[in-house]
Write a structure and sequence with these properties.
By secondary structure, this protein is an alpha/beta fold. The protein contains four helices and 28 strands.
Length: about 270
């Protein structure tokens, strides 16, 4: 039987696994499903249609599944989905999606670590094993790849994407996409995430190819020229192809590479 503090308030619509623990003054409101072994600490709120995985640790005073901060939201029953083994620390906020239906849910992948006072806005998607340090602020519709690390105080504009295994230094405010394996500091690409690539077991040949791809991005000011150079001069390993595909799919543009301030498409030069 679930261990529920007598001061907690649990909606009759909620479904709790047998060994869930709910702390003092926590509020579970709506059709919330909480998986085995999850602990909801004191003063935490979980609202709306929410599916929380197994062995998660949420709170204290975290807010998961509250209404999206969107001027056109009209009270629809929208979704939040949190994976297994996720840690959501004190006062972190995760808002449910703007559109109805579980397929549109705000999603947190498995084994993510969302530190104190971080904010994940409506319709965001965070890949497995991502880390959001204290006070990270994600605006709506952001996509964070697997095993990314966002330093404390990072702020991302709506619809920004961060490729997997990228690392962003603390207190960065960014409005463009960050490719896979990138390292970002002072508003610019500073090459690749060398430590992250090594720690995650990428082979030496793959790391050399990733480094070579980021060298070409820094060398060529025109984006199409940079991509052509990567295709012509860098071994087309899966990770290099991933970088190319990510950049080509970007709608917001890519964070500029040091020392150039921006990539310019040939089509936009008149």
């Amino acid at each position: 039987m679930a261990e529920i503090h007598p001061t907690a308030i649990i909606d009759p619509l909620a479904h709790l696994a047998a060994d869930v623990k709910i702390g003092a003054y926590a509020i579970i409101k709506g059709e919330v499903h909480i998986g085995e072994g999850t602990v909801v600490h004191d003063h935490t709120h979980i609202h709306g249609c929410a599916r929380i995985g197994r062995r998660c640790k949420i709170g204290p005073a975290a807010y998961v599944g509250l209404e999206p901060q969107h001027l056109k939201y009209n009270g629809e029953l929208t979704w939040t989905v949190v994976g297994d083994d996720v840690v959501i620390r004190e006062t972190a906020t995760i808002h449910r999606s703007f559109h109805a239906g579980e397929e549109h849910a705000t999603r947190i992948g498995d084994r993510c670590f969302i530190m104190a006072a971080a904010h994940v806005a409506h319709d965001c998607s965070i890949g497995n094993d991502a880390v959001l340090a204290n006070a990270v602020l994600l605006a709506g519709h952001c996509t964070i790849g697997q095993k990314c690390f966002l330093g404390g105080g990072v702020g991302l504009h709506q619809f920004c994407r961060v490729g997997r295994l990228a690392i962003i230094a603390g207190n960065e405010g960014l409005s463009q996409d960050i490719p896979p394996f990138a390292s970002v500091r002072n508003g610019m690409l500073r090459g690749y995430n060398a430590v992250g690539c090594r720690r995650n077991g990428l082979p030496p040949a793959t790391i050399v190819a990733i480094r070579a791809a980021y060298h070409r991005l820094a060398k060529h000011r025109i984006r199409s020229t940079a991509l052509a150079a990567i295709r012509a001069e860098v071994p087309q390993l899966p990770e290099v192809v991933e970088i190319l595909a990510f950049i080509e799919a970007s709608k917001r543009g890519i964070v500029p590479s040091f020392p150039q301030r921006a990539f310019v498409d040939t089509e936009s030069r008149g």
